[in-house]
Amino acid sequence: MKTDTKIRLIQIIETNGPARPVDLTRLLGISSQAVHRQLRALVSDGVLESRGSPPATFYALAGMPDFSKAFEWLSAARLSKNPASHVCETRDVFTARLSSLRTLVKQGLPTEDLPLLISVVGEIGNNSFDHNLGQWRDVPGCWYEIQVTRNLLWVIIADRGQGIFQRFGRERRRH
């Protein structure tokens, strides 16, 4: 009898993000041996990839970035005094980190595309500073991270500022 375990396993990861085998065992209601057998097959087929190392191994959809640390930072009620390594506390730090995009040329980015990429990412990141000056919810700065998966570039820039709706609402009330 053929089961839909692989399909269910993929759906869980699509819905909830990267998952540990122990969590998949609980959610699927099958033995850990069966989960590991399915995970090995899906990794071999290129559908999933493992991240981390035991006992903290997670399985995620292959080719998808992992921005979970950025989302944790963004949604945290309180942040520690020590900023995460991806946090740019000032515009100068952010601008300096843009130079990391140059390494993408070694990974296949056409040289002629680099100035446009730096310009676009820089403009978006600078908006975090321009539109939140003096209006940070708690921590000034922005999260800046890049990841490359299967020749796709993923960039995340997030800030803990006032938010676009609050900003535009205040602008509208002034006029």
Main sheet: which strands, in order across? 3-4-5
Helix-strand makeup class = alpha+beta
The fraction of residues assigned to DSSP E strands is: 5-15%
> In total, how many beta strands?
5
In short:
The chain is an alpha+beta fold and about 180 residues long. The protein is built from seven helices and five strands; from the N terminus they run H-H-H-E-E-H-E-H-H-E-E-H.
Describe the structure.
- It is a single chain.
- With 175 residues, the chain is α+β, with helices and mostly antiparallel strands.
- The chain contains 7 helices and 5 strands, in the order H-H-H-E-E-H-E-H-H-E-E-H.
- The chain has helices at residues 5-16, 21-28, 32-44, 68-75, 91-97, 114-130, 164-174; strands at residues 48-51, 58-61, 87-88, 142-149, 152-159.
- Strands 3-4-5 form a 3-stranded antiparallel β-sheet, sandwiched between helices. A two-stranded antiparallel ribbon has the order 1-2.
- Strand 1 and strand 2 (58-61) form a beta hairpin.
- Helix 2 (21-28) packs across helix 3 (32-44).
- The longest helix is centred in the last third of the chain and has 17 residues, at 114-130.
- It is globular, with a radius of gyration of 20 Å.
- The mean pLDDT is 88.
Which characteristics define this entry?
175 residues, alpha+beta, three-stranded antiparallel beta sheet, two-stranded antiparallel ribbon, 7 helices, 5 strands, globular
Element layout with pairings:
Blueprint: H1 5-16, H2 21-28, H3 32-44, E1 48-51, E2 58-61, H4 68-75, E3 87-88, H5 91-97, H6 114-130, E4 142-149, E5 152-159, H7 164-174
Helix pairs in contact: 2-3
